[in-house]
Amino acid sequence: MPDRGRTVSVFSFLKRMIISPAKKDFFTIGNVLGKFILGLSFFMLIPLAAAALFGEYDAFFDFLIGFLFSASAGLSLLIFCPWQEEAAWAHSFFIVSLGWLAASLLGAVPLFFSHHWASFIDAWFEAMSGFATTGLSLARDLDHLSFSHNIWRHLMMFLGGQGIILAAISLFTKARGGSLGLYLGEGRQEKIFPNIIATARFIWKVSLVYLVLGTVIFFLILFSKGLAINKAVVQAFCLFMAAFDTGGFAPQAQSIAYYHSSLMEWATMVFMILGAINFNLHFWVWYKNRTELYKNFEVRIFFLSMLSLSLLLFFSLRSFSSFTVFRKGFYQLISAHTGCGFTNLSFLELNGFKPVSLILIMIAMALGGGICSTTGGIKLIRLGFVFKGFLGEIKKSVMPVNSVYKETFHHLQDTVIKEKYIKEAFLMIGFYLISFFLGGMIGLFYGYEPVPAFFESVSATANVGLSLGLTGPAMPQGLKLTYILQMWAGRLEFLSIFIVIGYLASLFKK
Amino acid sequence: MKKIIFIAIILFARPCFSQGLEEIFSDPERFDQKQVCFEAEVIGEVLANDSGFWLNVSEAGYNLGVYLKNREKAEVLGHFGSYRETGDRVRMTGVFYRDCPLHHECGLHLDDLEVIESGYIRRESVSAAKLKLSLVLAIICLTLGGIYLIKEHYGKRN
Q1: A15, A18, A60, A138: which has the fewest Cβ within 10 Å?
Q2: Contact assignment for A260 to B104 by CB distance below 8 Å
Q3: Is B49 close to A78, i.e. CB distance below 8 A?
Q4: How far apart are CA B80 and CA B119, in angstroms?
Q5: pLDDT tens per residue, range A383-431
Q6: DSSP string over A268-327
Q7: Three-state helix/strand/coil letters over A332-391
Q8: Which residues in chain B have their CB less than 8 angstroms from residue A34's CB?
Q9: Does A394 touch chain B (CB under 8 A)?
């Protein structure tokens, strides 16, 4: 078992897995999935209650249908797949992949019935975008959407940011077996406590503390701007969930630009950055050592990459006034780097940026935030490993032949960078780059310009949500499905998807 | 001469030609710091700001912020677009800024606002199909829940 705070070598677990499922394995997977789907259905009671509270009767029935359908699906799986054994490693990765697919499909049901989404694929896209904390949206006429549907869109982001499978299972069941597999399968590679359920609950604790704090701060700003109390409460709640879980959905079509408030922009920036910080670092700063914030490897890389990208963006946008460059350019960069996707620009204004500025934003989107955070993308620590790897090679080449040189990094403790960390970082960066490239090529195939095609592809895979306007209800169905796949694979960091492919391949082998 | 004066009156009597929001957004540099006129639905509410007030308008998927120095100009508005209401449809005239030097935002500085079509409260109705589907699913869900509980209870006894 990996030590606390150490990067877990997920690929070593892959080697140990046996990809040859028996009938019993399918029962085990079905049973855990049944529990998960039943747990997820209970979360639909939150927007259902909101619809009843605000008197949104049509929306109430959308969520009633969604809840009953999901609960029936979960119960059916529990009846037909009785418990056989504790879920093992290989099961957990399969559960994660299928669980995320099931969650997005079931989460789309109440959206589909609202008529704000043109088809079920559009609703599925929205739900996947929500759970994967992406923020790309296919909603039509968002400004007339009900409070309850907005709560559900943002709640999906909050659940997705925590890791939906582990969230549902750790809150609603006493599952123990395979929980580390579920944790790793959902794209997290660090534990805070030796026990995974305790880690999941700590992540919930951190998120709930910030939820109260963020909702109060956002409410005060919105109320002072003139929003009615009920609307200010709902929008503050939604905006917090989207900011902290680096999701990027917003209750209004103009995103953060709707509020015309630099105070709101500053407040959202703070919570975006908090969401992009490793949960392990939150734990250390809260309970152990506050100076870790300045010493931490990931924080330093974030600061360095933000500084260099900001300087380059400043020069690339010099046709605008300095204040505008700071307010608009810096906000997009923070939003992109944290993987949030909030914007204070219309997509046409963003389109007005020079290609070089858009490429800088794409780089920020691709990099992402902390490794055990709510962000997507390559992640800072991997970038650091690659950088340190290069640095180490250069240093080795100028040292005497017999000298021993070890490169270290500080992440909670001083650790020697092992060869396998660098290899794994390269591998993951490779997967992301391939996905960015393939998605961009499919966009080109559908006739879009190169910059928007690659911009949206990076935004989907890195789970950011910034858009140049390509993503919309009118875009080709094939491209919608491509982005759904990219959001799914990017959020789970490809690993769980490969295991499903391995399982499917083994079925054909048999 | 009379003809020329007549044509000039027709041309200059109107403050500007009406543009759609789509036209403005498709070429914002062309309209930058120029008088524009468009029709759109008013969305949300009047938002207070240090230097004045803001409105947001929407038209065919395009949204724009509108700056008002005084709130009085917005007092003619009765309905703002939301889940419950379709907002007033208004004709707005003002100066469009791609990057306003005062607010550092893209928006319209309002000169004149006219309600051309009053908004209304939307009637919410639940379709019969949704009610029937809910009933059928409730029966299925309760039946499955019952089967599951019986199975669990029976399984534990054995």
Answers
A1: A15
A2: no
A3: no
A4: 7
A5: 888 888 888 888 888 888 777 777 888 887 888 888 888 888 899 999 9
A6: HHHHHHHHHS-HHHHHIIIII-TTHHHH-HHHHHHHHHHHHHHHHHHHHTTTS-HHHIII
A7: HHHHHHCCCCCCCCCHHHHHCCCHHHHHHHHHHHHHCCCCCCCCCCCCHHHHHHHHHHHH
A8: none
A9: no
Residue of A nearest to B61 (CA): A141
Asked whether the beta carbons of residue B65 and residue A260 sit closer than 8 angstroms, the reply is yes
**What distance in Å separates the CA atoms of residue A52 and residue A119, rounded to the nearest whole number?**
26
- Quick one: pLDDT at residue A182? 67
Which residues from A are below 8 Å from B154, CB to CB?
A: none
Find out whether A428 and A380 touch, Cβ atoms under 8 Å.
no
Q: B-contacting residues of A 356-375, CB under 8 Å?
A: none
Contact (Cβ atoms closer than 8 angstroms) between residue B79 and residue B42: yes
> Taking the CB of residue A224, how many other CB atoms lie within 10 A of it?
13
Which residues of chain A make contact with B132, given a CB cutoff of 8 A? none
Cβ pair A373, A360 in contact under 8 A = no
Q: What is the CATH number of domain B2-121?
A: 2.40.50.140
**Cβ within 8 Å, pair B45-A258:** no
Tell whether B155 is within 8 A of chain A (Cβ).
Answer: yes
**What pTM value is reported for the model?**
0.89
A397 alpha carbon, distance to own chain's centre: 39
Q: Write down the domain spans for chain B.
A: 2-121, 126-158
Residue A414 CB coordination number (10 Å): 10
- Best mutation target among A72, A145, A151, A230 (most B Cβ atoms within 10 Å) is A72
**Which residue in B24, B99, B41, B73 sits closest to A318, CA to CA?**
B99
Structure tokens at A239: 């905006």
Report ipTM for this prediction: 0.87
Higher per-residue pLDDT: B70 or A24: B70
